[in-house]
Amino acid sequence: MEQVGLAATSDVTLWSLFMQAGIVVKIVMLGLVGASIWTWAIVADKIVSYGRVRRRLDKFEQAFWSGQSLEELYRSLSERKPTGMGAVFVAAMREWKKSFERGAKSPIGLQMRIDKAMDVTLAREAEKLEARLGSLATIGSAAPFIGLFGTVVGIMTSFQAIAGSKSTNLAVVAPGIAEALMATAIGLLAAIPAVIAYNKFSADAGKITARLEGFADEFSGILSRQIDERMQTRQAAE
């Protein structure tokens, strides 16, 4: 009896439960483990990328409010591919320069074109910030149900084995039930971090996007004043 108890104990280790599982449950477990790895890869990437974005925003704001002329800042940024506030700034300045080079006469039309250019750039930057967040949402919502599916299949298989052996001994029933419940456990382990990470990074992306929109509104006001000044100077010269 003691040897039987030891054998039953050795048969309920995580590895043995996985190896004894049916093909469907194995596929479910492997898929959930892969989803968990993908979740942590996204988490690591977002921590690094969001930190980099914040540093670039701070650096740009420092340069923008340092008293450096807009033309100099535009030339320095346009030489490389800017991101964040730099991309919004370059898009607005590019439209500004093109319009005046072509002899823009309507300040309202010019302001609308500048605002449109900044809105398009803002949408692109927000899309970059939110990249792969949808994967976290999908894993967080679907993983528990996928794990539950594996559990249901495993329990059905266990009941079929019990019926075939015609025995309800705990040593016979326990491994199959444990094997089935392990699928749900893995599903929860994949889903919980994904949900927490999605909520955290969605909030961070919203804060960064709001910061970009605030700069765009402020810069739009600055350009609006300069447009009025240039139009007045042109009308006086004429």
From TrEMBL:
Pfam family, one: MotA_ExbB
Keywords from the named record: Cell cycle, Cell division, Cell inner membrane, Cell membrane, Membrane, Transmembrane, Transmembrane helix
Subcellular location: Cell inner membrane; Cell membrane
Membrane-crossing residue ranges in chain numbering: 23-44, 133-156, 176-198
Membrane topology, as annotated: Multi-pass membrane protein
InterPro entries reported for this sequence: ExbB/TolQ_transport (IPR050790), MotA_ExbB_proton_chnl (IPR002898), Tol-Pal_TolQ (IPR014163)
Chief location: membrane
Record's keyword annotation contains Cell inner membrane: yes
Domain of life from the UniProt record: Bacteria
Domain MotA/TolQ/ExbB proton channel: 111-213
Record bears the keyword Lipid metabolism: no
Family: Belongs to the ExbB/TolQ family.
Function of the protein: Part of the Tol-Pal system, which plays a role in outer membrane invagination during cell division and is important for maintaining outer membrane integrity.
HAMAP family in alphabetical order: TolQ
Subunit structure: The Tol-Pal system is composed of five core proteins: the inner membrane proteins TolA, TolQ and TolR, the periplasmic protein TolB and the outer membrane protein Pal. They form a network linking the inner and outer membranes and the peptidoglycan layer.
Protein known as: Tol-Pal system protein TolQ
Organism: Pseudohoeflea coraliihabitans
Lineage summary: Bacteria, Pseudomonadati, Pseudomonadota, Alphaproteobacteria, Hyphomicrobiales
